[in-house]
Write a structure and sequence with these properties.
about 90 residues, mainly alpha, about 25% helix, flat
């Protein structure tokens, strides 16, 4: 935010509706900024938007500005990542 004040610009945040609703965001990461551009978009919509952007190149660059590895959830608890690696939910 210091750079924002220094240069008179606004910092855009990257948090989306799914992250905000579940609290899966950090004060100095996803929420650090003055305006959340995608705050009203669910995570699945953000992924679809990324795929659409790569398929529709308005500038004619021929490149995909959003790498394919970013089109899929990465931090969700997958089966293999559960405690013990058994695929079973953790005991309460």
């Amino acid at each position: 935010m210091a750079l924002s004040n220094q240069f008179g610009s606004i910092v855009l945040t990257t948090g989306n509706k799914s992250e905000m609703a579940t609290g899966y965001c950090t004060l100095y990461g996803d929420m650090a900024g003055g305006f959340a551009v995608i705050k009203d978009l669910a995570k699945t919509t953000v992924f679809r938007l990324a795929r659409w952007r790569n398929a529709n190149d308005p500038y004619g660059t021929g490149r995909n500005p959003i790498p394919e590895r970013h089109h899929h959830p990465s931090a969700q608890r997958r089966t293999a990542r559960r405690p013990g690696g058994s695929g079973q939910p953790a005991p309460l």
